[in-house]
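Re: weekly structure request thread

Next one in the queue (213 aa):
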Amino acid sequence: MPYLGILTLIVQIFLAVHAARTGRYWWVFIIIIFPMIGSIIYLFAEYLPEMQNNSSYRKAGSLVTKAIDPGRKIREFQRQLEITDSLKNRENLAEAYYQAGRFQEAIDLLEKSLQGQHRNDPFLLKGLCHSWFAIGNYENARYYLTQFAKAEEGKLSDPMRLLRARTHEGLNDYEAALEEYGALSNSYPGEEARCRHALLLKRLGRMDEARDL
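Done, posted below.
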């Protein structure tokens, strides 16, 4: 049992230090005088509720949960969709499929939802653009990019324009890709657009232009 005693001592010290740093000096006394009971009470009464309200700890907990049970979010959204077959629940599940790399399932759900009054829904179209691109079907990705552009009246964000440039490149439509990359090189935040532009120029043997970029 020495390991249990050491673990108890470590927890006791950790919680006492936390109580002292947060100005809960009375709790320090309780934790020291009643190591096991005091630590348990402080853990549930003060420490855990505080952690639940801390965004950094919530994010860390979310990452741990995702690593241990990567399908948990998908199952939750599947249950929600079974209870209420709404567009929002379909969108949530499709996004969870995409984040898990289950692109075909995302596509199936998004295309099933793309009908009636939702046939021009920007979220659905955007998800299909990304999902078809992710599985390497650039022809379908370009089709939905065109539909998305129509739904947005031609006003595409820089990330969507970058996706369109990469789609052109995937289809070996290099002139269209270079034109899109060139337009993005001075407006896209960060260096990704400029780097992709330079890499395509290098691939086409235009080394001087690539080196300048």
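The mean pLDDT is 86. The first helix runs from residue 2 to 21.
Next request, please.
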